[in-house]
Amino acid sequence: MDGLDIEIKEKTIHSVIGPNGAGKTTFFNCITGFYKPEAGEILLENHSLVGLMPDRIVRLGIARTYQNIRLFPDLTAIENVLVGMHAHLKSSYLGIILNTPFVKKEEQEAEAEANRLLKFVNLETKANMLSKHLPYGDQRRLEIARALATRPKLLCLDEPTAGMNSGETQAMCDFIQSLRDDLGITIMLIEHQMRVVMGISEIITVLDYGKKLAEGTPDEIKRNPKVIEAYLGQGSAAQAH
Amino acid sequence: MEQIRAIWRYGIKVGIIGGIVLILTALIGMIEVFTQRQIIADVVSMGHALYLAAGLFICYLAAERTTPAKPLWIISNSMFAGLTTAFFLVLLIILGRHVNLRLMFINASDLLLNNLLTFGVQGNDGLRLLLIAGMGVGLFTGLFYLLPKFLRTVILWSLAGSAFAGVLQELIRPILANNFPDVISEWLLTSDGLTLKGALSIFIFIALIVISWSIKGGGIRQGWQGLPKKQQSTWRTIGTIILLAVILIAPWRLGLFMSEVMTIVGLYVLLGLGLNIVVGYAGLLDLGYVAFFAIGAYVTALITSPEIMNLNWSFWSAIPFAIFFGILAGVLLGVPVLKMRGDYLAIATMGFGEIIRLLVLSDALRPFLGGSQGIGQIAKPQVLGFVFKGPQEIYYLIVAGCMLVIFVSWRLKDSRIGRAWKAMREDEDVAQAMGINLVSNKLLAFGTGAGFAALSGVIFGSKIGSIYPHSFNIMVSINIVCLIIFGGIGSIPGVIVGAAALIGLPELLREFAEYRFLVYGIALVVMMLIRPEGLWPEEAHKRELHEDKTNEATG
Amino acid sequence: MPTKFQRWKERITATDIVMWFIGFALLVFIILGSILTLRAGRYTPVQWFDFVIYGLAQGSIYALVAMGYTLVYGVLRMINFAHSEVFMSGPFTAYYVAAYFYRSSLLESHPVICLIIVFIVSMTISTLIAFLLERIAYRPLRNAPRLIPLITAIGASFTLMYLFRGLYGTGFQAYPVWEIFSGKWALFKGLEIGKIQVFVIFAAALVMVALYLFIQRTRIGKAVRSVSEDKEAASLMGVDIDKTISVTFIIGGAAAGAAGVLYALVFKQVFFMMGFIPGIKAFTAAVLGGIGNIPGAMLGGLLLGLLESIGPALFLDGFNIAAPYQLKDAIAFLVLVLVLIFRPTGLLGERLAVKKA
Predict the structure, then answer these.
(1) In chain C, N or C terminus with fewer CB closer than 10 Å?
(2) Residue from the list A59, A74, A146 with its beta carbon closest to the beta carbon of B426
(3) Architecture of the domain delimited by B254-546
């Protein structure tokens, strides 16, 4: 990646698209602290993120999901969500052992919030199932619920509709939109399926070989000749309509 | 042709393996040593029981493998398995007549080859008897295999129960004598084994329990679930109180030997629970855990013993120091290994553990730590003049320690910190991406585990009175890891069950100490192959199974 | 924009500082110790030469055993804890053959043939044990979570150790002495070199080169390498994974069997626990060289042997520590831990050791 300059505005749904190997996931990994960029700066509300550990970055308000779902397989659904809330809980070691009123209250509240989040993603009946035994679509939504539990300002979704059929994809799109509308979270999206991207994003950035090829609203992108040439090609252009 | 070969091929295949296994069993002297203990007095010795059980097992495997599973074929395969196995033994005996096997295999005694293996009949008659017995066992097993599954289960449980009672009869005797009228003891036991009628009654007794449980058991479980929550919790409290009472009076009812065994098991439970936090919860495989145990014991020794530092403080004052230094060491040794994972972590921690042991053992540090001579005269705990000196008294100390550690583990398990640990265990990168600080949470796990180990070190040091570096070798760490995994990783009751099975049972069978680690090793391998989740797995899995059932019922 | 110092403070962790401190302290300790020892001049050059030769002989045995660890780690990503018992089983069994030769005085009349037979027996038994170990204990667990094969390996290690204890007894058995290897050759300026050390170094080098060529040149060897690089790709290319893994264990077993005889020739005794310490050392050697890397195992073995033999005298004696030689095992373990901490890829390793497999 080089010379990449992307600005994400608050409360938008911003998609990043590009062919395979364009550096989309690398871009995510840099934002969330798994890779360190060799040069350059990443700012969240004027706070520099470069070189911070991933757990600090989460606390600052960026959460993510993974392209190949990475839940905690041997934890239950609700435990997965509770792990996401870790950073916002304050129970101390001694407090936990003595089970102080503060810890009790905090645990109750956390559980209530986790249940609320599970309900939000339609998983409230499966709270006690091990996440590895959930069906695929549920796992996707659970992963988002877990990310939401970190109370992010910016949520990075890495191909949330991968491997879904069209009905499921539509449901996921509605869901993503409701995330922004109901919770007011800024969303950054990596996607392959043009229909999803064109349907829900407000701004689209097109990457190719780690460089920014174009940026604009879905309509602008659709009409951008460079994009059509480099990325959409003939077959995909037809699909986009 | 293929059809006809199916009549014998499985039997011969299994029989060859079985023959080799039985030859090895005989040559390592297990059968001969085990004949010294009678299961049923003057009828069956433990050696012969082992011998027959191995035969039965081999034939059973052959029967199980037979395809197509026609009754006649099952029996024929089972008989072929028995015959092949016996044939191998016959070969061994004949070889033993011509070559002096003892030059190589020290346990290949004349008694074994020409008497025990042939059921006491000598010469060629013995060989013939052995072959016939092989077929007989095969026939019996084949027929047994054809019984309905329910009957098989009942018979197996009852047989295992009687054999178990026979093996442990020396333990059972004082327990019976202490707690029950003499009649029972006389009915069941002679001076060196079960009586025939005793064995039969145990067999029938267990059979009745198994049968009635399988008829009534489901009903009882449903009845329990049908009870209102409040009543359930009352019953649970009552159960806990009874359990506590049993635990508290146990040492005085079970005698000195059992108390000693229980203290040893208790110490390992304590150690196991500590390591369970590190390995089971946080997924950090620590093979140098014994170092913290050693630190606890040595701190106690230095503080309370007149040797070396000559402080002579009391046992109780040693506890906070030991735990403090244990935790400190846990954190200090934790820092360098923070970035390691899996096997690498295991090896690095093992290295630390060995370095510490070698340093303690060395002459270089002898003026400070006693070197190979160790440190003696460690203080016994005292409360208002009451001295915890024998195993029956120390037992209470250990029970108190275990309760404390169980309590702490249980509180942590489903807390914010416990969840963070489990998340790290499942996927470290994602855990970090969910806002979990790996450094502090790992160090918390290392510190907690080390603190528990130091606590058990304190009790251990004071229990045995003088400590030596060789008590703290790598085997202890490996034993603890194994008992955790054997019992069910991450599970508190699993640790207790694992310690009882891997530490307690071998202690009870001390006279066969020679084979202790062999059986231990085999048990580990077999366990990992057939039931890797352990004897008593973590709750989440059970909770989920339960959930699945209710879902099926409603949906 | 935050100031430079703030940025730095947010990004440097306490862990880093502790690690720098540990590394620095050790470096100072080693350098100071060496300077003090050398200034005191307690050892003559002849003694240093002896240390080096002993170290090389010991190291080449470690290197041979380390091959087994490294090969298995390459294909299965597991530490074959039971490899130390593979190392023990061969020479322990071959002892009875050697003892027979000794009793029948064949050893005196045909020492070379006897030695070859002892080697063959030992290597056969070790190979057999390694092969069976994989088939019975490891193969069914190919896809199990990582802890499980490790525990199985520990269990298998116990089983083998105590099986051989049951078969052959608990005692130390004294290996017969080959007259051709006793004594020393005089070199120039009063330097002498033990015949047995020379033999061990050469024999080990021979076996290692043979195995290395086998792995580099033959089809099966190439299969082994391809499996250790990428199992799935290898299987797509038509490599029989099961067979290749068996071959890996067989090669490792043969090397361990040869190493075992060399070990028995140097230390002149065998017993059922003889594998434990050399096993751990050999594993250290494999890690030191870069696990999964065959030349690395050789280099690591030699280096570890040298460090163990020279280390106590060089680093510790200068501090006037009582009996520094007792700490040679501690030095070996320290090397292991330090390599894991500061260079987990080992000296020649390309693979990232911290990666999650």
Answers:
(1) N
(2) A74
(3) Orthogonal Bundle (1.10)
